[in-house]
Request: fold
Amino acid sequence: MKVEGEHLFSGTQQQVWDLFRDTEVMAAALPGTKKMELIGENTYEAVMNVRVGPVAGEFSGQLVISNEDHPKSYTMTVDGRGKPGFMKGVGDVILTDQGENQTLMAYTGEVQIGGKLAAVGQRLIDTVAKSIISQAFETLNNSLAERVTAEAEGREAEYQKSSESDYAASVAKDLIKNVLKRKDDEES
Amino acid sequence: MTYKVIGKRVKRVEDPRLLTGGALFVGDVNLPNMLHAAFFRSDYAHAKIKSIDTSRAKEIPGVVGVYTAEDMGEAWEPGPPLVSPPPTLEGVVFNSRRQVPLVKDKVKHAGEIIAVVVAESRYIAEDAVEEIWVDFEPLPAVTDLEKCLEQGHTLVHDDLDTNLAAHLVQKKGDYEEAKKGADLILKRKFKLDRGAAAALENRGIVVDWDQKNQHLMVWDATQSPIPIRNGMAARLGLRTHQVRVVAPFVGGGFGPKIMMFYAEEMVLPWLTMKLNRPVKWIEDRKENFYATTQEREQVQEVEMALTKEGKILGIKQKIIHDTGAFNPYGLTTPLNTQSHSMGAYDVQNYNSELFVVFTNKTIVTPVRGAGRPQGIYIVERMLDIASKELKLDPREIRRLNFIPKDAFPYNHEIIDQAFVELVLDSGNYLPAYEKALEKIEYDKFIKEEQPRLRAEGKYVGIGVVPFIETTGVGPYEGARVAVEPSGKISAATGVGTQGQSHMTSFAQIIAEELGVEVEDVSLVSGDTAEIHWGTGTFASRGAVVAGNAVLAAASDVRIKVLKLASKILETPEDELELEGGLVKVADIPDKSISLGELAVLANPFRGAVEPGTEPGLESTKYFGPAYGATAFGVHGMILEVDPATMMIKIHKYITVEDCGTMLNPLVVEGQIHGGVSMGIGNCYYEKLHYDDNGQLLNASLADYLIPTSAEMPPIEVYHENTPAPNNKLGTKGVGEAGAIPVPAAFAQALENALLEFDLEITETPLSPNRLYELLHKQED
Amino acid sequence: MENTFELSVTVNGTSYQKVVDPRTLLSDFLRNDLELTGTHVGCEHGVCGACTILLNGDPVRSCLLFAPQVHGQEIITVEGLGTVDDMHPLQEAFREAHALQCGFCTPGFLTTLVPWLEENPNPTEEEIREAISGNLCRCTGYQHIIDAVKLAAEKMN
Reply:
């Protein structure tokens, strides 16, 4: 399954780069994350609660950053397993300075899923993946704003955690939006 | 032969219990003190097992044990090879690899079992399965049939240096020579993909070891209880009389339930003997998609040489057949493909090279059709393509090539799945073909209907395809028939029943021979305590092989009845009649004796049985045909495609089938209807989607679409009768016929509906998405 | 059992009081606790229809209900439609038309059709096809089932 998209952040390229390499920020951004720890130089260990339609459960695995071209791009490799199945993914993240304190973050990647998740979750996976990513970006953008403000105010940043119920609500919203969009496409 | 009971539309004797919820299926077996098993199955299609942690699972209250391959110790061994390659074929490369009870080192397909939990309830057992953790080292999965034979490709089996499971070549005549005289040489590549049998009842097994009696009782939803009994006894070190296997009512077989020594069938008997308690396992639907065998995936390169009139000079073929992770069933399926790649035609030159490959997918064993649909598909597609290239009517090209009726028995010389030369025993193809064309009103459709509908903006097309089906193969089956003191008849045969109506159609044979009512015949099938020798229900052979064994046994009982009655009634045998459960003297209605009384007399409490006679009125006989009986049929359909949605609607569906003598026309029709519904599923709605990781992406009935009544058209069935010369009943099999030609007929009809798009279909199954892709590819 | 539920339910006219694990599916409750094995389980995800029973007269999938959900309700299973000696006209029609082969899906068709036929005493083939499109059968291709429904409609009027 291909995963790609882009998001505009309100920050400099360096600030966005730092944001993405901040473990605490990342843990807060991804909904359902129970744990994220830096265990090696570029390796994180994570435990996440995943829900795709009727399939839910805990996933644990590793996230490795490689091919770093600071502060422009890097590659991220994910390998996770849990009761609902397994997931493997590899993606490239590219940051481009848009000027005026804006940075465009573009990502493309391939995700492979297996087990129950693949067998039963197929038709939902696309929407759910996009939902997770878009919600994560929203949280990250907020985190970035908070980080910038905190720096300016000379205090510790307080990152708002992405809640699972918010996430579930946003997935539901996205699913409905998708259906309505398809209906619109058909009618037009 | 004019029959009184055989050939009649008799109501089934097994129905009342089935209709009122009183019939026993394996899932209904409930024993005191029974435990339930659940399995931890691999998500990965190809992975090494580094460690297994069952400690948390064992702690759950209600769990009796959690076992892995290590716990099985010496009892662990792979399943036996069921079918070896034909000894009659030379130069066969065959690498036998069979499935294992519990995986030891490396998982070879998603769904393979790594651990088993036994608990007081299935619910608790499944809770425990969730607590098992296995540390895997995932490996790249072998999924591409063509690439997997390349040098350096990942191997499914590390102890082999290749993914080749088998290789052989079959030849008839000399294709290369014949090709020199061709006006047209066509070459095409075909892709055929997997489908599941998806019987409504999933598999299941209940085992009960009685320590005091040293006896193992097994209920198994299997198509072959006798071989299961034999194999289980051997594996467990028991004598055959210590094991009894019962296949009760089975909710649909369609092939995969003849696969023997599934992992679960190896694990459960070990468990019950270890724990000394009955153990039950019923497969759930998701497991069924991974763990029950599937079929149909092949890649074929086909070459056909023809004259400009359309006469086939020869066929050359390369088949790559996917056997999945293991090949316990030998070469049965792809040999069937070869046997049907010449279709119903007089093909003098044939050269077919077969490669069978291992992949990291579920094991492949026959599913209704068992390789035959693939053969018929490619030959009929090639003829359709040839008729377009040669600008011939697709009907003419078939008529020209049919095996003429005086050419039977027709020997194709290649070896078929029964290990003998492929001999088509009898047939009369042309009249059946013409009948089909007439019933579907082919001419009228092409000349009037289609243009009219096209003018209305509708895309409607017609497809008519003839086919043969090899049926009724050996080795043999047996039957026992006995008259009871009550005058009723008890009978037994080894072929299990999964809906084929054996209890009725075989009872009809007995009723015919012995002059009793069908309801007075009680036939047991699928119980190893009732008959010791037999193979099972497969390859459309029940009626032919078991049916003729029933006839032989019943005839023998009739002889005994007449001999005894003649003595008692002091009348010559040729003046006696069997009717209404009595033996009567012709023309003297008062002089008669009932079968029951005769049975009592034949089993005296005192005195002596005459030397050279057997006591009672009972007989056990076997029937083993030298070669099978070849059925023939023609299917035709008219379908409409909506080019916007790609949805199809079949408006008309007709079949002409020739299965020789019909035992019960209701049953024959039912088999055809069911086969057609499976065939239609195989065309457009059913496809098992595997990704490059060997992951099944549609393992539920929500995404694997079995045709409902809304997809099914009404089906008209017409009969022809070319009796089989090699069995007394003159009958041929018909169990798989319905499914065999459907994809070929569908492709023809679809191309015909979309004529202006000049579509050439070389793959099956299709789907709305795929059809869209194919049509739009044309545009690019 | 840690968590239990005291279930009260009427099945085929008989009242039952049973203590159950609250997550027991209704299909398993009927088959295992009450030993009414006529209701069959084909998929456990609500698609095949083999587990269909009548809940207060309406056909529902028993595999998609938990036993406590039918507390105080009335259920009819295939065993309640007729007996071997006294079959419902629909059951007889199924037999005459050869509408069952392996018989596994049959109870689900019967429970679906019995109330439907009472409301649709004179159905067309199209209507019948739609009415049974929620029940899967792998053996019959549906043709003889449709014949049976037409026959039953005649018998019932």
Notes: The longest helix of chain B spans residues 542-569. The mean pLDDT of chain B is 95.
